[in-house]
From TrEMBL:
<dbReference type="Pfam" id="PF12161">
    <property type="entry name" value="HsdM_N"/>
</dbReference>
<dbReference type="Pfam" id="PF02384">
    <property type="entry name" value="N6_Mtase"/>
</dbReference>
<feature type="domain" description="DNA methylase adenine-specific">
    <location>
        <begin position="124"/>
        <end position="463"/>
    </location>
</feature>
<keyword id="KW-0680">Restriction system</keyword>
<dbReference type="GO" id="GO:0009307">
    <property type="term" value="P:DNA restriction-modification system"/>
</dbReference>
<dbReference type="InterPro" id="IPR038333">
    <property type="entry name" value="T1MK-like_N_sf"/>
</dbReference>
<feature type="domain" description="N6 adenine-specific DNA methyltransferase N-terminal">
    <location>
        <begin position="1"/>
        <end position="115"/>
    </location>
</feature>
<protein>
    <recommendedName>
        <fullName>site-specific DNA-methyltransferase (adenine-specific)</fullName>
        <ecNumber>2.1.1.72</ecNumber>
    </recommendedName>
</protein>
<keyword id="KW-0949">S-adenosyl-L-methionine</keyword>
<dbReference type="InterPro" id="IPR022749">
    <property type="entry name" value="D12N6_MeTrfase_N"/>
</dbReference>
<comment type="similarity">
    <text>Belongs to the N(4)/N(6)-methyltransferase family.</text>
</comment>
<dbReference type="GO" id="GO:0009007">
    <property type="term" value="F:site-specific DNA-methyltransferase (adenine-specific) activity"/>
</dbReference>
<dbReference type="GO" id="GO:0008170">
    <property type="term" value="F:N-methyltransferase activity"/>
</dbReference>
<dbReference type="InterPro" id="IPR002052">
    <property type="entry name" value="DNA_methylase_N6_adenine_CS"/>
</dbReference>
<dbReference type="InterPro" id="IPR003356">
    <property type="entry name" value="DNA_methylase_A-5"/>
</dbReference>
<dbReference type="InterPro" id="IPR052916">
    <property type="entry name" value="Type-I_RE_MTase_Subunit"/>
</dbReference>
<keyword id="KW-0808">Transferase</keyword>
Length: 507
């Protein structure tokens, strides 16, 4: 059985265990209220649970009921029925829960139920959420390339949220996968002593129906709700279910890279100022600058975006360079972070994190962009995978805060991040360019580099540091792309000149 076949059902059992813990706590409270009040008991009224952001579970839908079923019974059928019962009494989960438990034998299901029952009922909700995320990550890793379509490693998402700081407002992810961006945003709010459900309004789009259901389940496990549009041929290039233009305080995303065959004829009515693609459509058959414009256009006047993008987008030539120039000249590009290899399950190649801030145009940093080379910052998990520690994330995020002139926030990273900041930026840390780490480049410097947003062009190499094979290959690929582009332009000029000469001779 493939991971994609068993991952949904296992996550469903973890979800059910979590839902029962919350249900049982509220049921006990309602029973106590019913015993002391004259009015009728509300202990079996679904709306009483919904009012407290808790799912109502009928008797046959409860985890403990399923756990006590004899092994000889049809446990798969019973779990499927339980999921249907939950959807019936909790409409927000309609069509979301897995119902393929008949793929498992009763013996295996009994073992799974026993194993999940070992998760202590005393755990707080965030701990349940972390268990759910752990399994999401493990399943994504086992699926390799396919896994990355629904899961972005948490350390990457954590840095995105730390930099855009989604304290309060509307948040959009138009390629939301299993909802990791929303969960980390909620965790950021909770760590700053606020209630995420009250502070954040969540909207998402997910092309794959199964993944969209995973997202809604992930939100529910974390006590969150959102407007998630998924399945039914919905596609963020062509569809705008949230009327996003200018509406969002925050955008977070890890879109698919280098998508081709987008039908641009369907997009022509969405081009121009105040529309989804304000800077125009790329002439190349590549969707990267469609995504980038969707993120930009969805932001309100003070909005911030953080997203993952293929390295090639930072240096792309021709029409993509023209689009990038317009974006830079709009004073919206705030920070660019180069990320090293092996940070993702999908690809071993390095990527770039882009941060947009529409509000920066009215600040002292309007005419600069901060470039950070974080390719040498990582923790090795195993031979093929890396991540960032909390201290490393805290260090990078606070480097950005120093650049912005904001107060340090050591909620994440604590003393370890503080020590590193003092080591590099002084006992009373003040931003300064550091060779091999960071550079605040002016628009004039960026123009001189062909409007490139490749951090290595500005940051340089730290003293005594050698260029790695991976970096050399990346630089060679960039130069080769430039050569291919120049050769194509030369051929076009050659044809134009030949045609002009021919016309003159014919005259």
């Amino acid at each position: 059985m493939k991971a994609q076949e068993y991952s949904g059902p296992i996550l469903g059992l973890i979800f059910l265990r979590f839902a029962e813990v919350r249900f049982a706590l509220l049921r006990t409270k309602l029973e106590a209220e019913g015993a002391s009040a004259r009015r009728a008991s509300r202990v079996d009224v679904p709306e009483a649970y919904h009012a407290e952001s808790t799912l109502y579970l009928s008797q046959e839908a409860r985890f403990d009921h399923l756990l006590t079923l004899p092994e000889a019974s049809d446990i798969g059928g019973a779990v499927n029925a339980a999921m249907r019962e939950i959807e019936k009494h909790n409409p927000k989960l309609a069509g979301v829960l897995p119902k393929t438990y008949n793929l498992f034998t009763s013996t295996l299901l009994k073992e799974l139920l026993k194993k999940v029952s070992e998760i202590p009922a005393t755990l707080d909700y965030d701990a349940f959420g972390r268990i759910y995320e752990y399994f999401l990550g493990a399943f994504a890793m086992s699926e390799g390339q396919g896994g990355g379509e629904f899961y972005t490693p948490s350390s990457i998402v954590r840095l995105l949220t730390e930099v855009i700081e989604p304290f309060h407002g509307r948040i959009l992810d138009p390629a939301c996968g299993s909802g990791g961006m929303f969960v980390q945003s909620a965790r950021f709010v909770a760590e700053h002593q606020k209630n995420p459900a009250a502070e954040l309004s969540i909207s998402g789009v997910e092309k794959t129906d199964e993944t969209g259901r995973l997202c809604r389940l992930n939100l529910a496990v974390h006590g969150l709700e959102g407007q998630i549009s998924h399945g039914g041929n919905i596609n963020s290039y062509y569809d705008d279910p949230h009327n996003a233009v200018g509406q969002f305080d925050f955008v977070l995303a890890n879109p698919p890279f280098n998508v081709n065959a987008v039908d641009k004829e369907r997009l022509t009515d969405m081009v121009g100022p105040g529309r989804r693609f304000p800077f125009g459509l790329p002439r190349t058959d590549n969707g990267n600058y469609l995504w980038i414009q969707l993120f930009y256009s969805s932001l309100n006047a003070q909005g911030r975006a953080g997203f993952v993008m293929a390295n090639s987008a930072s240096d792309a030539r021709s029409s993509e360079q023209e689009l990038r120039q317009q974006l830079i000249e709009a004073r919206a590009v705030d920070v660019m972070v180069a990320v090293g290899t092996n940070m993702f399950y999908t690809v071993t190649l390095p990527v770039t994190l882009w941060f947009l801030d529409k509000g920066k145009a009215k600040t002292s940093r309007a005419d600069t962009v901060l470039f950070i080379d974080a390719r040498h910052i990582y923790r090795q998990i195993d031979r093929a995978h890396r991540d960032w520690t909390a201290a490393q994330i805290g260090f990078i995020a606070n480097l950005v805060r120093l650049y912005r002139g904001e107060a340090l926030d050591l909620t994440l990273g604590g003393a370890d991040a503080a020590v590193k900041l003092k080591e590099i930026f002084g006992d009373q840390p003040v931003y300064a360019d550091v060779q091999g780490l960071c550079k605040a480049a002016t628009l004039q410097e960026i123009e001189a580099q062909g409007w490139s947003l490749n951090a290595s062009r500005y940051v340089g190499v730290a003293p005594g540091e050698e260029v790695s094979d991976e970096e050399f290959r990346e630089q060679l690929e960039t130069l080769n792309e430039e050569l291919v582009s120049l050769n194509a332009q030369a051929r076009q000029l050659e044809q134009t000149i030949a045609a002009n000469v021919a016309r003159i001779l014919e005259a």
